[in-house]
Amino acid sequence: MIFIVIFKLFFRLKVEGLENIPGKSNFIIIANHASFLDPLVVFVAVARKIHCIALRDLYRISWLRWFMRLNETFASGSSSAKAINLLTGNKNVGLFPEGGVSRDGRLRDFRRGTALLALRTGRPVVPCAILGTFQSLPRHAKFPKLFFPLKLKIGKPVYLLKEFSELIDEMTLQKGTFRIRNAIEEMLNEDATYGAERT
After folding, report:
1. What pLDDT is stored for residue 69 in this prediction?
2. What pLDDT does 53 receive?
3. What pLDDT is attached to residue 44?
4. The predicted structure's pLDDT at residue 3
5. Residue 175's pLDDT is what?
6. At a CB cut-off of 8 Å and minimum separation 6, what does 169 contact?
7. 107's torsion region: left (phi>0), alpha (psi -120 to 50) or beta?
8. Distance between CA atoms of 162 and 139, rounded to whole angstroms?
9. pLDDT at 110
10. Which candidate, 84, 61, 83, 57, places its Cα nearest to that of 72?
11. Domains in the chain and their CATH numbers?
């Protein structure tokens, strides 16, 4: 795949923790979102088919729309039912729980969708920390900085106990969301100065 060559050659992408990807189960994979490069980093690094939930507005950009349809992504909004069907059908689902690209590169609050999917389906959540993409391609930049080192850290899966009741209480959702966000925050903090010397 051409994107693998591009990211290895021009971004020196380094991947850690591939052994944490579940081998016997499908999963929900999530990451922090500091740049439009982030979905490509995940697709390139993880050699498993991932159906990613993308912001509806991104489908207005022609080349992104083509790429997302090629990779069978689907738009956010009324996406929960489709994501649950994919997960119960042993497919992998990916999303960015912050709900959009961070303006300053810092980790924002998470929406409840990831915890809801995990609690509804019992599938593990694979947390990922992406480093360097904000420095390479911040939100309003037109072109990325080439040869800027990027890193993807894949953490150990987070398991939330499957809920069988129709209604999931707010406290359960909050606790699940906190656990998921904390897993990514800890990995980001471990490499807080990653790529700083290149900025």
Report:
1. 64
2. 81
3. 87
4. 64
5. 96
6. none
7. beta
8. 36
9. 97
10. 83
11. 29-194 (3.40.1130.10)
Give the DSSP per-residue string, the chain. -HHHHHHHHHS--EEE-GGGS-SSS--EEEE--SSTTHHHHHHHH--S-EEEEE-GGGGGSHHHHHHHHHTT-EESSS-HHHHHHHHHTT-EEEE-TTSS--SSSS--PPPSHHHHHHHHH-PPEEEEEEESHHHHS-TT-SSPPTT---EEEEPPPB--PPP-SS---HHHHHHHHHHHHHHHHHHHHHTTTTTGGG-
* DSSP β-bridge partners for residue 153: 16, 129
Residue with tokens 């389906």: 121
Distance CA 54, CA 143 (A): 21
* pTM, two decimal places: 0.88
Structure-block tokens of residue 164: 């069988």
Nearest to 117 by CA among 126, 129, 108: 126
Across the 199 residues of the chain, what is the mean pLDDT of every consecutive 10-residue run? 68 92 96 91 90 69 61 65 92 93 94 95 97 89 83 97 86 97 97 64
Report which residue type is found at 105.
G
In single-letter form, the type of residue at position 176 comes to G
